[in-house]
Amino acid sequence: MSGLTIENISMRFDLPNGGSVQALKDVTLELKPGELMSVLGPSGCGKTTLLNIVAGFLAPTEGRIAMNGHTVQGPDAERGMVFQQGALFEWMSVRENVAFGPRMKGEREAQYGANVDHLLDVVGLQDFKEKAIYELSGGMQQRVALARCLANDPDVILMDEPLGALDALTREKMQSLVLKLWKETGKTIILITHSVEEALLLGERLLVMAPRPGRIHKEYRLPFADLGVDQDLREVKKHPDYAKTREEILAMIWDMEEEIMGRTEESA
Amino acid sequence: MTILAIYVAIFIGGFFAVKYITASARPNDYTSLKTVTFGDESAVRPNRAASVISIVTIFLLWGSFTGSSLIPSFLHAPAAFTGTGVFTYTVDADGKTDEGTVTVNVHEADGDAAVPAVAPGDGFAKNDSVSIVKYRSKLLRVDANDELGRGDGALIVAVNGKPIAPGGEVMTDFARVAMTPKGTLNIEPKTGWQMQPLYLPPPEKVASRLVEISNTGFRNSTLWEHLGYSLFRVIVGFLIGAAVGIPLGYAMGLSNWFRGWFDPVVEFMRPVPPLALIPLVIIWAGIGEVGKIVLLFLAALWIMAIAARSGVSGVNITKVHAAYSLGASKWQIMRHVIIPNSLPEIFTGARVAMGVCWGTVVAAELVAAEKGAGMMIMVASKFQNTDIVLMGIILIGVIGFSIDVLMRWAERLLVPWKGRS
User: Fold this and answer.
1) A28-84 confidence digits (pLDDT tens)
2) Quick check: B327 and A133 CB within 8 A?
3) Best of B317, B318, B326 to disrupt the A interface by mutation (most A CBs within 10 Å)?
4) Model confidence over A208-238: pLDDT tens digits?
5) Choosing among B317, B318, B325, which should be mutated to test the A contact, i.e. which has the most A CBs within 10 A?
6) Chain B residue with Cα closest to A150
7) Is A73 at the interface with chain B, CB within 8 A?
8) Looking at CA atoms only, how far is residue A85 from chain B in angstroms?
9) I want to staple B291 with a disulfide (CB 3.0 to 4.6 A). Which of A136, A182, B285, B377 is the partner?
């Protein structure tokens, strides 16, 4: 069975003060190869925890993750990850960063060289390939991170707020780039974000999670990601359903936030 | 006190002078346009004119108060009196008074020590003469050759016409003349404001010592052997310390068991000053090369272990996660992520360790050594060769500074990403 299966994942851990936290409860999901799913939710809803479990950095207390039929035990090259920032290696040039995955597999320059150069072209960094990481802007650094992940040819790409630290204009350009790469490579992508607009634009499937305990609240299937592949994202936003869905999700998240506030006030 | 006052005066005077001179030539770069400079560390740049004046002032004061031949004599502080001085004394013997003179030859330690020849003169008080080395004083029984002396009830009542009594004193133009309780005169020629070479030799004497010792050596070894031995000990001790300390630090940063096992040892040994280990190391390993190297090894070990440990714990966890999801093995993560990421910390530690080692080796050589920079100044101080002591201190400073510059240069070359992530 191909694709990514998340079966009844629960995560509960003890705190030093004796209490315990239920970070996730009974999360079940199935992603087919090539699906693009965005995950949205108020802070503390466990979306990053979920992503870390899928990546294999954390072990769930219950349930299992299956990737192409086998259970996930730890991090692996089949599940690539793009972080918000700080994950690039400053001691390597841009090109060495992108070639990191293939080199770790023991491939030689002759084997990975062409692909790495192609990816640098795709993300528009061919002219910067010999530069040091600290010489690049934030947007360029995230493009390096994307290229590095793709150079390793993973089956699933996990993105943890990859555009969160960028300014609005760069962010819009990067959103188009993510859609383009998704269509060209046909990768399965899970993208975590705080931005409702980004979740709408970059999600065939959009998952809204609720906090305390972290769980799936609602799932949408949206047309905007497909539209955005060929169109300007500003055109996509004019789609009649776009504003409506955005308001609906915003209202949903506001309700959750208010509920959290209410609960904190009660306990205080 | 006077020297401090002059120093402060030059400090303040230099500030206003430079400010006045450079007022018209104000640079127009970004920093000079900042209006908030008090509290903005980046706006505080060293004034190079101040640095130059500071260095010149130190040498000027040094030269001035040692009578250096390198600076014009009108800048010299008043020197100690040398040459011939004369004063008169008056003797009173039962109402009869007479005057005699005392001629004093104040000479350099290696100068003409001849006692001036003087005619005895008339009257019962005969003229005297005496020879005194510069900076010293001498007791003189001026009545010893007089016809009526102390045993005859004669008393010295005045010097240069000014009355004097036992315990009193009279200042003449070249000396202070004091009378002991028994009536003997004590002649102290003026010492001026300059330092005696024993305490502070003039700069040119230190420089000529440097030339002399670099040509002929000191204590059966050339100067370069002395300095080379010290450097050799530091480098070998540091390298062994780093070779053990860095892997130990990595192990402590990567394994619970290593961290738990070595934490108490490292945390206890870190605050123990290496100097406190010198006696123990001498007991265990003697005063030879082994003892020195063991001491420097111990000085460098803990610093390097702690630097490597904090280098490992300073690695951003997302980098490690990223490398794992790119398919790297543990060994590859060590080689490509943890080691390069810890290099900046290790370099900082290495700079500190080299500084500590250099200080420790000099101290250890002060205690006991056959050769070395510290031994050189220690032996020189026992023979009161202050110029060699000063020369040694300057050379030790120059070498320590060069080591640090070299380490910083290597750091820029090898870890250009330091502080930029």
Assistant:
1) 888 888 888 999 888 778 888 888 888 888 888 888 888 888 888 888 888 889 988
2) no
3) B326
4) 888 888 888 888 888 877 777 787 877 877 8
5) B325
6) B326
7) no
8) 8
9) B285
Q: Which of A58, A73, A89, A158 to mutate to test the interface with B (most CBs of B within 10 A)?
A: A89
Of B322, B327, B417, nearest to A134 by CB-CB distance is B417
pLDDT digits 0-9 by tens, B338-356? 999 999 999 999 999 999 9
- The helix (run of H) or strand (run of E) holding residue A84 is none
Question: Distance between terminal CA atoms of chain B?
Answer: 51
Query: Which pTM does this prediction carry?
Result: 0.81
Q: Which residues pair with A9 in a beta bridge?
A: A27
List the domain range (segments joined by +) for residue B9.
Answer: 2-75
Q: Is B321 within 8 Å of A80 when comparing Cβ atoms?
A: no
* Yes or no, beta carbons of B322 and A87 under 8 Å apart: yes
Could you give the CA distance from residue B200 to residue B193 in angstroms, rounded to a whole number?
A: 12
- Give me the mean pLDDT over the A82-111 stretch: 87
Residue-number span of the structural domain to which A244 is assigned:
1-78+155-251
Q: Where are the beta strands (DSSP E) in chain A?
A: 4-14, 20-31, 36-40, 62-67, 70-71, 79-82, 156-160, 188-192, 205-210, 215-221
Tokens of B288: 């030879």
The domain boundary residue, chosen from A123, A138, A153: A153
Same domain, A59 and A107: no
Task: Establish if A91 touches chain B: CB-CB under 8 angstroms.
Answer: yes
Token look-up 């030799």 returns B201
Could you tell me if residue B197 is inside a domain?
A: no
Q: Are residues B347 and B221 in the same domain?
A: yes
3-state helix/strand/coil string of A106-169: CCCHHHHHHHHHHHHHHCCCHHHCCCEHHHCCHHHHHHHHHHHHHHCCCCEEEEECCCCCCCHH
Residues A148 and A169 both lie in one domain: no
Number of separate domains in chain A: 2
A83 touches chain B (CB under 8 A): yes
Inter-chain residue contact A91 with B326, CB threshold 8 Å: no
Here the ipTM equals: 0.89
Residue A21 inside a domain? The answer is yes
Q: Is it the case that residue B420 has pLDDT exceeding 80?
A: no
What chain B residue is nearest to A156 in terms of C-alpha separation? B325
| d(CA A77, nearest CA chain B) in Å | 4
Clarify whether residues B158 and B264 are in a common domain. Answer: no
B402 compared with A20, residue with greater pLDDT: B402
Flag if B326 and A133 touch (Cβ within 8 Å): no
Q: What pLDDT sits at residue B421?
A: 61
Per-residue pLDDT at B354 = 94
Q: Judge: B327–A105 Cβ closer than 8 Å, yes or no.
A: yes
pLDDT at B342: 92
Please tell me the distance from the alpha carbon of residue B421 to that of residue B57, in angstroms, as a whole number.
42
Residue B368: give its domain's CATH number.
1.10.3720.10
Higher pLDDT pick, A123 / B233: B233
Element (H, E) at B275: none
Same domain assignment for residues B59 and B108: no
Look at residues B152, B251, B240, B219 and name the one whose alpha carbon lies nearest to residue B372. Answer: B219
pLDDT at A265: 61
Identify any residues that bridge with A93 across adjacent strands, giving them in sequence order. A132
pLDDT tens profile B64-123 = 988 888 888 888 888 888 889 999 988 888 878 888 889 999 988 888 888 888 888 878
Any chain B CB within 8 A of the CB of A75?
Answer: yes
Q: How many domains does chain B have?
A: 3
Give A1's pLDDT tier (boundaries 50, 70, 90). Answer: low
Residues near A92 by Cβ (< 8 Å), separated by ≥ 6? Answer: A100, A133
